[in-house]
Write a structure and sequence with these properties.
It contains 17 helices and eight strands. It is of the alpha/beta class. The protein folds into two domains: about 5-155 and about 310-375, Periplasmic binding protein-like II (D-Maltodextrin-Binding Protein, domain 2, 3-Layer(aba) Sandwich); about 160-305 and about 385-430, D-Maltodextrin-Binding Protein, domain 2 (3-Layer(aba) Sandwich), CATH 3.40.190. Helix 1 (about 50-70) links the parallel strand 1 (about 40-50) and strand 2 (about 70-80). Helix 11 (about 275-285) runs antiparallel to helix 15 and helix 16 packs antiparallel against helix 17 (about 410-430).
Length: about 425
């Protein structure tokens, strides 16, 4: 039950794996890590599909930085969502990567391995206490020491459910499932009561679902995947039961976040993940659903919900390391993150920010209720998706999950094959 990546502002981008061969080579992930010295010089700052909606915000941040450091000049570049990973790869290959770059953990991993992402544990360790532990750790790379981007904004979201459908199935609309056992029991009951017409879930399990369920995803050295353990097999076996009973939507094998969202809007699916951004959509497009919307926490066996995180990395080949590090920190400091969070439904990664009344004080609205719940859960949330888990690996896992659900392979064989495929891709990319 992944929170769609669209829950982040940039979510339409397809995050493709960057070929390391295009990025040069580097053993320790860093060139000069000396960020001391005078903050001066011209630097470039690249964002990911943010100019259209936040032009004045970023122009203001840049103006404030240049006022604080009069000997600097920041050139802002914004790239479209589509093809962003390819653009970074091409710039890395051509030596034209900007000084400061908006990245996600899976985008920074190949750059760090290629020696193009500055190790902030060396260059900016003094800033580490300013950020949530889980957010700072999200840009660590298995098998490497260091942290390779400042954490920027975060997102997570609740599970929405249709109270009307719960009531029709004889389930208590005010007591949604809070454990996986409850979820699977309720889903089977709903499918049975509706004659297979109403599914509870519409998404096949993804890597983050295996993580939330308690499966070991990867070894600590970053040399191999491990989600074919007993927990992983157990989860996929449960999903197979749901699929056979039509408690998992029959079209889940080809579903997209958009298609599952539409099914939830039309009452064909009883539960769907989302974020505060979705509530306005429900109001406009499905007012009857909005009146009967239930909001509950992500289900997890680990006690930690999943979070998505964006980051800001510094290019090791910048000619102005002090200025680039200072600007990357400035963009992601508590004041600027808080200001950004009030403009769009995202959350700051800075320590203490989530205790602000904006994230803690109820005002009776559902939007605020979702925001407060998400902020509370983010304090100890983790990014379950391994930073080395590429889009090709996601496809390999999805293909094997589909075979298991269709009965073409056992859940154990499917996950064994998925791990083998992902390990093979890992070796190719490494």
């Amino acid at each position: 039950m992944p929170v769609p990546r669209r829950a982040l502002v940039l979510a339409t981008a397809a995050l493709l794996a960057l070929p390391l061969s295009a990025c040069g080579s580097g053993e320790d992930g860093g060139g000069s890590s000396d960020a001391s010295g005078k903050v001066q010089g011209d630097i470039t700052f690249q964002t990911w599909n943010l100019r259209a909606n936040f032009k004045s915000y970023f122009e203001g941040v840049i103006a404030d930085f240049e006022k604080k450091y009069p000997d600097t000049h920041v050139k802002w570049i914004d790239q479209p969502a589509e093809g962003y990973a390819d653009k970074i790869s091409a710039d890395a290959a051509g030596g034209t990567l900007p000084d400061v770059v908006n990245v996600s953990p899976d985008l920074v991993a190949p750059l760090a391995k290629a020696g193009l992402a500055l190790d902030l544990d060396k260059a900016a360790a003094k800033y580490k206490p300013e950020y949530l532990d889980g957010a700072w750790a999200s840009h660590e790379i298995p098998g490497m020491s260091g942290t390779y981007a400042f954490p920027w904004y975060l997102n997570t979201g609740p599970l929405f459910y249709n109270k009307t459908l719960f009531k029709q199935a004889g389930l208590d609309p005010d007591r949604p499932p809070t454990t996986y056992d409850d979820l699977f029991t309720d889903a089977l009951k709903m499918a049975g009561q509706s004659g297979g017409k109403v599914a509870t879930l519409a998404n096949v399990p993804t890597i983050e679902d295996f993580g939330r369920y308690g499966a070991e995803l990867m070894d600590k050295q970053g040399t191999g995947f491990a989600f074919n353990d007993a927990k992983g097999v157990e989860l996929l076996t449960k999903y197979k039961e749901l699929f056979d009973a039509k408690a998992l939507d029959p079209q889940a094998l080809t579903a997209t976040p958009e298609s599952t969202g539409k099914k939830f809007l039309t009452g064909a699916v009883a539960m769907n993940p989302g974020s505060a951004l979705d509530l306005d959509n429900f109001k406009k497009q499905a007012p009857n659903l909005y009146k009967n919307i239930g909001i509950t926490d992500q289900i997890t066996s680990t006690g930690h919900v999943n979070m998505y995180v964006m980051g800001v990395m510094v290019n090791t080949r910048t000619k102005h390391t002090p200025a680039a590090v200072a600007f990357a920190h400035f963009v992601t400091d508590a004041q600027n993150q808080m200001s950004f969070a009030k403009k769009v439904a995202i959350f700051p990664s800075t320590a203490g920010s989530l205790d602000d009344p904006y994230f803690t004080k109820e005002d009776g609205t559902d939007e605020t209720r979702v925001r407060i719940a998400a902020a509370k859960s983010l304090k100890n949330a983790v990014n379950y998706t391994p930073v080395l888990f590429s889009d090709q690996m996601k496809t390999a896992l999805r293909n094997e999950v589909a075979k298991a659900l269709q009965g073409k392979e056992s859940p154990k064989a499917a996950l064994d094959n998925a791990v083998k495929a992902c390990d093979r891709l890992l070796q190719q990319e490494g």
